Amino acid sequence: xxxxxxxxxxxxxxxxxxxxxxxxxxxxxxxxxxxxxxxxxxxxxxxxxxxxxxxxxxxxxxxxxxxxxxxxxxxxxxxxxxxxxxxxxxxxxxxxxxxxxxxxxxxxxxxxxxxxxxxxxxxxxxxxxxxxxxxxxxxxxxxxxxxxxxxxxxxxxxxxxxxxxxxxxxxxxxxxxxxxxxxxxxxxxxxxxxxxxxxxxxxxxxxxxxxxxxxxxxxxxxxxxxxxxxxxxxxxxxxxxxxxxxxxxxxxxxxxxxxxxxxxxxxxxxxxxxxxxxxxxxxxxxxxxxxxxxxxxxxxxxxxxxxxxxxxxxxxxxxxxxxxxxxxxxxxxxxxxxxxxxxxxxxxxxxxxxxxxxxxxxxxxxxxxxxxxxxxxxxxxxxxxxxxxxxxxxxxxxx
Length: 399
Hints:
Elements: E1 2-3, H1 9-16, H2 27-30, E2 34-49, E3 61-76, E4 81-89, E5 97-100, E6 111-120, E7 126-134, E8 151-161, E9 164-174, H3 183-189, E10 201-210, E11 213-222, E12 226-239, E13 242-255, E14 261-273, E15 276-285, E16 313-327, E17 330-343, E18 346-362, E19 365-378, E20 383-398
Antiparallel strand pairs: 1-2, 2-3, 2-20, 3-4, 3-5, 4-6, 6-7, 7-8, 8-9, 9-10, 10-11, 11-12, 12-13, 13-14, 14-15, 15-16, 16-17, 17-18, 18-19, 19-20
């Protein structure tokens, strides 16, 4: 992180608001112990759908400009307490502010305060965060430079006991009514006029290492909605000429007052040899349902570019990629995914194939280009809902 002196004057004035007006400290002294980090991202999507049936006519062409800026400020209050805030220039869900080029004119985007909490580290090997903060769980995304973020107001505690880390948290309100890929489903489950953001959440976890293997186990309960647990194992092995890795996770979610089991299991293998790398992954869900994440980018789900088995029943998804580090600053890969699942009584299939070029101009500036095809078909009726090409350009600066 860089010292706050490198920020713009507008941001500096915002940080100065942390200090009491009564103290009337000079600006230089007020920001002396403030650090800043953040990101600026621009993304352009161009999606073409060759299936021009009346139902899909509005989706035939979708070109969209997307923007997001995130700014996290950490001000040291004293030796034990740090004040943390996060501002985002984004949509209300803290995700991309997107404007369709054929529908919207150029517009300005609001600045919002997404985090404001105090972090206490006065106890040995322990950190306690109190206030409005990111939901740091495997089911949610607390901070994301190019996606939406889930937040809540409450308390989170982490403590190290030898080789084990224990975590516990309680939140009395969240933004899950506005952010996350299941917000519509969750709000509907609360009943007419319900707001899932008012439901309490509590979670507990244990994390540790056995040799090269990192293990974690989490439990989470959302009042009157569901309870869920997840178990994960992850490791990397350096065998001189080849580097191997694996990531395995199982997640189960049971809805309250509903006799439905939701399960998702996934396993990912990675390998790297010289300039070449490869990944092979599989994810599956239970025939009764696969709701196991509140955001598709969460650890408990499995997100590719266009596909995810989260919230899909009886899903089998395969994902593979082959890459090469063509230059120190350029990585090229070919990526393929295929998924079968149930939608009611219908058999569905999705598949995608795309090439990706990742360019790293410097440590804090780079981006990627993707181009390929994505299809979604109802195998029972033979109708293709989506049949087209997709392209993306993304540029990101971090500081």
